[in-house]
Amino acid sequence: MSHNTAHHYITKIEGHGRLKYDTKEGLVKIEIDEGERLFERLVIGKSYKDLPFITARICGVCPTAHTFASIDAIENAFEVLPNDSIKNLRKALVAAQIVQSHILHLYFLALPDFLGVKSGIELHEKDPRIFEIASSLKGTADKIIEVLGGRAIHPITPTVGGFTKTPKREEVEKLIVRVRGAFRLAQETIDLFSGFRYPYLNRKTTYLALAENGFIDILGDTIVSSNGLEKDISNYQYIISEKIRTGSTAKFAEHNKKGFMVGAIARVNMMELTDFHPKTQAAINEFKIKIPITNSFKNNLAQALEVLNYLEEVEMFLVAYLESRSERLNVGYQVGPAVGVGAIEAPRGTLYHMYKFDKNGLVTDCDIVTPTVQNLTNLEDDANEYLRQNKSVTIPRRERELEMLVRAYDPCITCSVH
Amino acid sequence: MKEIKVAIFDLTDCEGCELQFLALREELAAKGKDFQLANWRLLSNGASTGPFDITFIEGSPITDDDVVAVKKARAASKTIVALGSCATFGGLQAALPESRRALNIQKVYGEKYKATSRSPKNISYYIDVDINLPGCPIDKNELERLLAAVTSGKKYKEIKYPVCLECKARNNTCLFLEDGFCLGPITKGGCGAICPTNGLRCYGCFGPVEGANIEAMENVAGKYTDKKYLKDNLELYFKNAEEYKDYITKRK
Asked: By CA distance, what is B113's nearest residue in A?
C-alpha cells in the first residue's frame, strides 16, 4: 500500500465504505459507495400496513429499530394510542435490538483490532473463553427478539396498533431468567473493554438523543442535545439537515451547520450516574469509567456499558409486561390524510422515519434519516482532529488507528444508503 | 466439513442473510460441526481470493464493483449459491421500475447528483448460478439442509411445495380466509411458514413456487382485496421471477 496515494477500502464495517487519507494535505475524507436502493421511493404509493415490513429490510443488523421507527411514525400520523402492555413489549424489543447489534459489533467486528486476531471468525480457536461470552450474549439477544418478535432478524409480530401475536407467560418468565443469567457476561464485557488501551483523541462535540420527561428514553418523544436543545421529534427536519456530496451515496448530516454525535457515547454522556440501571452504575464505579467520554475510540466502551444497561432494561420491561399483561394485543385507529414523524433510539443513535399519507393511508412522501448519516460529519472531524493530536505517531500506525476510529463508530453503511 | 472451502460475498443489500448464516455457524460450532470460511468481508481482513468449493453471494449487483465481484467469484468457485432473495430475484429494491430509476435518484439526491449505480438485478443476470436459496431473510434450517447436502457431495433438492403446506402442518388458522389475502398458496416453502405462524400473512419473500397459479390468486384475492394493493404486493418479491414474468407476458 502506498502512503502517498490514499485510496483504500475499510473492511469489517457493515456495508461498503472507504476512507480517503491524503498524507500531503493531511486530510481525511469518508466516501460511501454502497449502491442506491431508494427505499424512500420504494414506499411511495404503498399502504401504511406494509411499511414496517418493507423498511425493516433497509438493514439486517438493526431491522427491529426500523420496524419500530416506522410503526411510531404511522401511529403518530393516525393518533394511535397503544396500551401499557404493548408499550412494555416494544421497549423490551428496542432495548434488545441495541444489545444484539452492540454484541455483534464489539465481539465480531471491533475485538480483533484489540486482540490482534485476524478476524472475528477465528475467535473460537484463538480465544475460546471470549468466544463463549460472545456467543452466549449474542444468543441471548437473538432469543429475546425471537420470542417477542417472532424471528431474530426481520421481526414479524410488531404491527401498527400493537402485535400480531404475543408470547405466553411461561415463555416470558423463561426469558427473564436467561436475561438475568447474562448480566454476569455483560459485566465481563465491560471489564474487557475498559481494560484496553485506546488511541489518543480528545474532542468535545454536540450530542443528540431522545428523551421523555427529562430522561434519555429509547422510545422518547423529544430530541435533546448537550447544548440544552429540547424539541418535539416532529421538528427533526429543522434540527438536522442532510447535505449531498459528490462521490458519496450516503448524505452527511449537520446540526447548526456543524457535525454532531448520536449513539452510545451521546446517550451515555447525557445520562447522570443515577439514570443508569443499578448493575451498570456499579460497573461504572468498579471499573472507574469516566463520563463524559470525549474520545470517540471509546465508543466501544460506551457500547459495552449499554449492553449491561439495556439488558437490565429488557428485564425491567419484561417484568412490567407480565404485571400489565392485557388480553388486548391491538388498539383501534382510523386512517386518513396525515403526516407522521417517528423516532427511536437505534443501536447507533436516533433513527427518524417520516411519512405523508393520503386519505386511504397510501404514502405520498417519505424521509428516513439514519444514525450513521448523522455521525458521518463528526467522524470526519474526529479523524482530522486525531491527525492534529497525533503528529508524532508513525504513518502505518496512524492509518491503522484511523481504521480503528471508523470501526469504533460502528457505521452502518447499509442503513446510511437506504 | 473442515476440508470444504466456503466463501461469502455480499453485494448491495441489508446483510440480514449473512447474519442468519453467522447465527447458524455459531450453533454448528457449538456442536463441534465447523467449516472453513476462506473469505467473508464483513468479518475479516485480508481474505483469500480462492479457489473456493462453495461460494455464497448475498445481495443484488448494483455498482460496477458488484458486477466485477460476481464475475470473479464465478471464476474462482465450483458451486455458486445465490443467498437470499436479493441475490435470487434482485430483492425488494428491484421492485422499483428501471425506467424511472434516474427520476427516483433525482428525487432523493437532487438534480446535480451523479448516480453511480445501475438497476438492481438477480445475480443470474450476470453469471451462472448453481443453487438459489431465496428468503428475506433466508431460513436457517433450510441453509443447514443445503450445507449438509453440498458438504457430503449430495444434490440439494429445491423445495417444490408452497408455504401453505408448512402452514397447515403447523395447524395455523388460514390468514387468506381471515385477511382476504395471503401469498402463501403461490409462494415457495422452506420458511416453516414462520410469518403466518406469528400472525402475519405471507409476503411471498421466497418467490413463486414451481407451477404457481398466479392467475387464480389474482382472481380469488381480487374479490376481497384492492387490485392495486394486490399488484404492489405481488411485485414486491415476484417482479423479476421467471414465473411472474411469464404470467405477465401471457396475459398480454
From this structure: A246
Going from the N-terminus, what domains does chain A have, and what CATH number goes with each? 7-416 (1.10.645.10)
Chain A, residues 2-41, CB within 8 A of chain B, namely 11-12, 14-16, 33-41
DSSP run (H or E) holding B36: strand B36-40
Q: What are phi and psi of A354, to 5 degrees?
A: -130, 130
Within 10 angstroms of residue A342's Cβ, the number of other Cβ atoms is 26
229-248 in chain B: CB under 8 A from chain A: 229, 232-233, 236
Chain B residues whose beta carbon lies within 8 Å of the beta carbon of residue A123: none
The strand pairing partners of A209, in sequence order, are: A224
A256/A240 Cα distance (integer angstroms): 8
pTM of the model: 0.95
Distances in Å between the Cα of A369 and the Cα atoms of A154, A240, A248, A327, B70 are: 19, 9, 16, 35, 31
ipTM for this model: 0.95
- Domains of chain B in start order, with CATH, are 5-151 (3.40.50.700), 163-251 (no CATH)
Match 451547520 to its residue by C-alpha cell.
A257
pLDDT 10s digits, A198-253? 999 999 999 999 999 999 999 999 999 999 999 999 999 999 999 988 778 889 99
* Cα distance between residue B153 and residue B211, in whole Å: 28
The residue type at A91: K
Contact between B17 and A60 under an 8 Å Cβ cutoff? The reply is yes
Nearest Cα to Cα of residue B19 among A63, A192, A224, A352? A63
Euclidean distance between CA atoms A252 and A258, whole angstroms: 10
